[in-house]
Write a structure and sequence with these properties.
- By secondary structure, the chain is α+β, with helices and mostly antiparallel strands.
- The protein is 53% helix and 23% strand.
- The protein has eight helices and eight strands.
- The strands form three sheets. Strands 3-2-5 form a three-stranded antiparallel sheet. Strands 6-7-8 form a three-stranded antiparallel sheet, covered by helices on one side. Strands 1-4 form a two-stranded antiparallel sheet.
- Strand 6 and strand 7 form a beta hairpin.
- The longest helix is centred in the last third of the chain and has 41 residues.
- 12% of the residues are buried.
């Protein structure tokens, strides 16, 4: 009887470590995948299957896993010194937005897809801006970004990468080029101001000519004179206004004109003997 108890105790002592190992292996076989992730299972080094979100079971030791984040990622393109088509050096930096659409291709076909996307974006940025003139680069950022996005997306498509957007953040010019562009903008503003001023003077002269024609009619000048007198009288000042009929002014002007006509000529001096 004692021997049976000893055998039972020995068997329990042996089963306890096995039970602990079994529990550890069971826990190792459980794999939780988040909704924004996908997990690739390699069995003995070969691709086996793709795990979706939720609780999954893998074979411990035999299976190994690689998890891929499916959310949109951001890669910053550092500032690049680029010579434009018209030989102007500029510094440009941009940002790339991308996501993994095929986890299997992103793991099996490229070692580090994030680094590869960054390097390819830099190359495409330099190539595109190097073939554009400075004015186009400064005014057509969206078109340049779209062209870069098309190039990068075409090359990274086989890696299972989808380029969602590329945005150019900053374009830095040399200091002397900035001063030249500032002088050009100032000259352009002065040109527009001069044109607007000349157009205003032309319009004002045309209106004055029409006003003169209107005032030259019968009675219009008298009405304008009365309006001016009314405006002056409303001012509380010491101004004295003397009103004379227009006929008196015309009579005085006629008298002065007749005196000039009737002025006798001086007699010629007698010749000296």
């Amino acid at each position: 009887m004692a021997g049976e108890f000893e055998a039972l105790g020995l068997s329990m002592t042996c089963l306890f470590p096995l039970g602990v190992i079994a529990i550890i292996l069971l826990l190792m076989s459980l794999k939780v995948v988040f909704e924004y992730e996908r997990t690739i299972v390699f069995r003995l080094g070969r691709f086996n299957r793709l795990l979706g979100p939720g609780l999954n079971i893998v074979v411990p030791i035999i299976d190994s896993v690689r998890t891929v984040d499916m959310r949109i990622k951001t890669v910053d393109i550092p500032k690049q010194e680029v010579m434009t088509k018209d030989n102007v050096p500029v510094s440009v930096n941009a940002v790339i937005y991308y996501k993994v659409k095929d986890p299997q291709a992103a793991i099996l076909k490229i070692e580090d897809y994030m680094y590869a996307v960054s390097q390819y974006g830099q190359t495409a940025l330099r190539d595109v801006i190097g073939n554009k003139e400075l004015d186009f680069v400064l005014t057509e950022r969206e078109e340049i970004a779209t062209e870069i996005e098309t190039i990068v997306d075409k090359e990274t498509n086989e890696w299972g990468i989808d380029i969602t957007a590329i945005k150019i953040q900053d374009i830095e010019l040399p200091a002397d080029m900035k001063r030249a562009m500032a002088r050009q903008a100032e000259a352009e503003r002065e040109k527009r101001a001069t044109i607007i001023m000349a157009a205003g003077e032309l319009q004002a002269s045309d209106n004055l000519r029409k006003a003169a024609l209107n005032l030259s009619g019968p009675g219009a000048l008298h009405l304008r004179t009365l309006q001016t007198i009314s405006d002056v009288s409303a001012d509380q000042s010491n101004t004295i206004v003397v009103m004379l009929p227009v006929e008196v002014l015309q009579a005085i002007r006629g008298i002065g004109h007749s005196d000039v006509l009737k002025k006798p000529e001086k007699p010629d001096k007698p010749a000296k003997k």
